[in-house]
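Let's see one such:

===
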Amino acid sequence: MQRQDYSFLYQKNSDGYLVTIRGDFAEMTRVNVVEKRSQYIKLEAPVDVIRQSVNQLIGRGYRQVKALELSWKALASD
């Protein structure tokens, strides 16, 4: 059975975090939303740790983008 990866974008103005879940492990990459590029700050950790970080982002005003454009695919599958 092949593993399915899932990606989510959390955005606040032009700043964002791309979260990719890979099984029981996840990564969170800070991105420039306007230019659709990485800002080279990346956290890799178990899903529970990333989930806590996402909750902190939400508390700071970041919101999940409902539809992730295909142009993010290169960063999401990095």
The mean pLDDT is 89.
